[in-house]
Amino acid sequence: MTVRIALFAPYLPAPAFSGGRIRIHRLAEGLAELGELVLFAQAGSAEARAAQGAKELELYRASFVAGARPAIPGLFTASRVVRGMPAALGRAFRREHSRRRFSLAVVEHSHAARFALGTGVPVLLDEHNIESAYRRAAVDARGGLVRAALGRRDATLLAHWERRVWLAADRVVCVTDDDARAIAAVRSEPPIVVPNGVDTRKVPFVPPSRRTGAEVLFVGLMDHPPNVRAAERLAREVMPRVWAVRADARLVLCGANPAHEVRALEGDRVVVTGRVPEVAPYLSRARAVCVPLAHGAGSSLKVLEALASGAPLVASSTAVRGFRLEPSVHYLHAETPEAAAACLLEVLEDGPRFDPMAAAGREIAEAHDWARLAQRFAEVAESLLGTTPRAG
Predict the structure, then answer these.
(1) Is residue 292 within 8 Å of 230, Cβ to Cβ?
(2) In angstroms, rounded to a whole number, what is the distance separating the alpha carbons of residues 387 and 392?
(3) Which of 53, 212, 240, 250 is most buried, with most CB under 10 Å away?
């Protein structure tokens, strides 16, 4: 009998231009080796139009897409749960399941689990991050009394939902050791860590000694609030200190959907690319990659891309969360604008000195190649085929 896998996602994994989309697509490549994939994804009309013809969707035997209705935070269910999996997708899943039974449900993010639980199908949850903790931190950073109160209430509802899904899922996969410890405190069976990865075949290694020019690169989805703030910090606090010594240096902000705050940074020495077909050319010519993230969740694929490329990485501890990296061995650690600027100037003035660091970073990246990780994820999924799902 053909293995049939339902994959639930709170956004379309196509085109794969952001960390979450890349993870879903790469792990789905491993699942496709087991059998037939059917996608159930939330997406608005603009997102659905942008995904038409995307090669990533060729993995799926069928795709069902529905947009979310507005959800009021803090009533009965977290707004993220309501938006993440619209009722129309639940109806589509039940129709498909009655027509031909699914062997497994794979859920990307716990807030996409609404219609996967209690169906008689084993559930594999891929928890990209602990979203409630991220949202609580984001609310606290924004401030505003009424908005903050509603946001905290919604984050609390989301945390309750996450714990429910962690308990109900037959297996839980997560991205970092820290997330694994938080989930293990709730489940009797600990989660399995499958970290984020990088396609090392698509990122050529160029050691610092062979790099010329003076480009400093930051890569990320440019409407994601932590990335927006990091881009502003780079342009307004870090690079002016670099330009005082190296007027020829340029900052390249590379990534899709630049917010108006990011567009406003563009100038003679700051380039905002928008979405690009491939990040590899930008990585190949950068003299350094700087990731001054102040907060975030899960782990950052941009860190692995930098390590794979050989460009010296200047990063905060938040940026390298989830990876077992050692300062001065794999990257240059900088928490303040002054420290980041000093590290960048070191690289610009004496690149060849960082060749050993680049080689060590490439080894880390190769250990996180997506092909290996997709195989590991598929093995977890395969272990659930033919099993009896948990009650509830």
Answers:
(1) yes
(2) 15
(3) 250
Q: Is residue 222 within 8 Å of residue 255, measured between CB atoms?
A: yes
The domain locations on the chain are 4-197+370-384, 200-367
Place of tokens 């009309």: 45
Taking the C-alpha atoms of residue 273 and residue 251, their distance in angstroms, rounded to an integer, is: 11
pLDDT tens for the chain, residues 1 to 392: 689 999 999 999 998 878 899 999 999 999 999 999 999 999 988 888 888 888 999 999 999 999 977 655 556 678 888 888 999 999 999 999 999 999 999 999 999 999 999 999 999 999 999 888 877 766 655 655 546 566 678 888 999 999 999 999 999 999 999 999 999 999 999 999 999 999 999 999 999 999 999 999 999 889 888 899 999 999 999 999 999 999 999 999 999 889 999 999 999 999 999 989 889 999 999 999 999 988 766 667 889 999 999 999 999 999 998 888 999 999 999 999 999 999 999 999 999 999 999 999 999 999 999 999 999 999 999 999 988 787 65
Rounded Cα–Cα distance for residues 238 and 291 (Å): 11
CATH fold for domain 4-197+370-384:
Rossmann fold (3.40.50)
Note whether 4-197+370-384 and 200-367 share their fold: yes
- Copy the structure tokens of residue 6: 């339902």
Query: Could you give the angle at the alpha carbon of 19 between the alpha carbons of 290 and 107, nearest 5°?
Result: 155
Q: Length of the chain, please?
A: 392
Two structure tokens written together for 230: 């990091």
Are the CB atoms for 320 and 289 separated by under 8 Å? no
Q: What fold, for 200-367?
A: Rossmann fold (3.40.50)
User: For the whole model, what pTM was predicted?
Assistant: 0.86
Closest alpha carbon to 8 in 85, 120, 98: 85
Give how far Cα 383 sits from Cα of 51, 96, 99, 123, 189, Å. 32, 23, 24, 11, 14
151's tokens: 């946001």
Report DSSP state, residue 11: S
Decide if 58 contacts 27 (C-beta within 8 A): no
Report how far residue 5's alpha carbon sits from residue 2's, in angstroms, rounded to the nearest whole number: 10
